[in-house]
Amino acid sequence: MENSGEAIIQLSGTFHQDSTKVLTLLYYPIIGKDAFILYQLLYSLEDLSIGVNQIIELSNLNDGTYQKARETLEEFGLLKTFLNTSENRWLYFVCPPLDSTSFFSHDSYARIFINECGARQYDYLKAYFHVDEMKTDGYLDVSKPLDTSRLDLWNDKKEEVFQNNKANEQRVYDFDFNVFLQGMDRIFPIRLRTPENLSFIAQLSSIYGIDERDMKCLVQRSIHPSTKEFDKDLLKELVFVSRKNVKASKDPYKMGPVAFFKSKQNGAPVSNSDKHLLESLCVDYGFTNEVVNVLIEYCLDKTNQSFNHSYVEKVASSWARLKIDTKEKALNQINKVPTRKKAPEWYENTEQTKPSQQSLQEALKLQEKLKGSEG
Predict the structure, then answer these.
(1) Residue 308 contacts residue 302 (beta carbons within 8 Å)
(2) In this structure, how many other beta carbons lie within 10 angstroms of the beta carbon of residue 171?
C-alpha cells in the first residue's frame, strides 16, 4: 500500500527566478541524485492524477529507492505528502526550494552542505550567489521591537478560540471526497483542490449537514464563470441560505449541528443568528458535531427552549476549558452538574386552613386596641 494507489500532483507556493539554480547547486549535493530526479519528475507532472507505480517507472527507481527519495524531499521541505488511507489516494504538493539567502542562513541546511561538500565549495557558492552579510560595526540597532501592548486586550476567551482553531486545523471530517470529486475534473480542477479548499468544503458540509452530491452543486455555483476561480465566500453564503431538508441519521448526535437544531424545532427554519452561533461552536471552539449537538440539547432544556446565546457561550467556554471533545465527556459533564435543591415539604405546602370564629374576634379586638393607642 505504501507505493500503490493514485496520486494527485500539484505545485504549492511561489517558485522564484533562481529556483532551478538553487535546486541544482545547493540542494542536489545534499539530497542526492534519486531525490533530485524524483523532484524534477513530480514538477513536470503538475496537475495530473497518476498511479504511484507509474511515477516509480518514469523515475527509473525501484520501490525502496523511490520511497527513500520521496522521504528525503519531504525532509528538506520540497514535498508535502498527504494520504487518504481508506481510499489509498495520495496528494503530492511540490514545494519551491528556499532562495539562496534563506538556504545559507538556514542552520541545518548550511551545516549539512558543509558536512557533505566542504567549506571551500560552500564559500565558493556563497560568493556565486552574492550573499554578502552586511557589517554592522559602528552602527546602533534602532529597529523597533514588537509592541506587545497590542495583546493587552487578550483574554481567556480569545486564548480558548486560538487554541481550538489550532486543533481544528488538523480535524478530519466525515466527507467522501471520491463522491464529491466524481465528474468534477473540469468544474473543480486539480489546481483548486488545495488542502485549505478541501478542508473548507468538508467543514461546511459537516456543520450544515449538506451531503457530497448537494455540495457539488453549490461548489459549481461558487466557481467564477470568467476567471474560473473558487469563491469561498460565495460558497459559504450559498450554504448559509440553503434550506434543503436533511435526512435524519441513525445517531442524531452525528448530524450537522444546523440540521440537528432544525430537527429540535420541528423542521422550522434556523435563524441566521442561531446559524452563526452554531458555526462558531464548531469553528471557533473546535467542538465536534456530537459535542455541539449535546450542548444544543442541554442548553435548550435549561433555558425552556429559548436557546439563549449568552448562556450557550458560557457553557461552551466552560466545556472548552474542561477539554470536552467527545459525546461521552459531554454527557458525563451534564450528569455532574448539580440540580437545584428541592424546597422542603413545609415550604411547598401552601394549603391554608380557615381561621376559627374565636380567632377572628380576638384579632378584631387587637386591631381596635391598636387604633386607640395610636389616637
Answers:
(1) no
(2) 15
CATH of the domain at 92: 1.10.10
Our separate counts of H helices and E strands in the chain read 20, 4
- One-letter amino acid identity for 206? S
Count of CB atoms within 10 A of residue 50's CB?
Answer: 16
Query: Cα(339)–Cα(337) distance, rounded to whole angstroms?
Result: 6
Instruction: Specify the number of domains making up the chain.
Output: 3
Whether 259 has a pLDDT exceeding 60, the answer reads: yes
Q: Is 39 exposed, middle or buried (0-12, 13-18, 19+ CB in 10 A)?
A: buried
Q: Which domain holds residue 213?
A: 177-241
Question: Does residue 130 belong to any structural domain of this protein?
Answer: no
For residues 16 and 94, state if they share a domain. yes
> Within this chain, do residues 220 and 284 fall inside the same structural domain, yes or no?
no
Count of CA atoms in the C-beta half-sphere (13 A) of 195: 17
Residue range 77-82: mean pLDDT, rounded: 92
Band (28; pLDDT cuts 50, 70, 90): very high
Sorted by sequence, the CB contacts under 8 Å of residue 262 that are 6+ apart come out as 246, 268, 269, 270
The single-letter DSSP state of residue 50 is: E
Rg over CA atoms, the chain: 33
Q: What are the backbone angles phi and psi of residue 74, rounded to the nearest 5°?
A: -65, -40
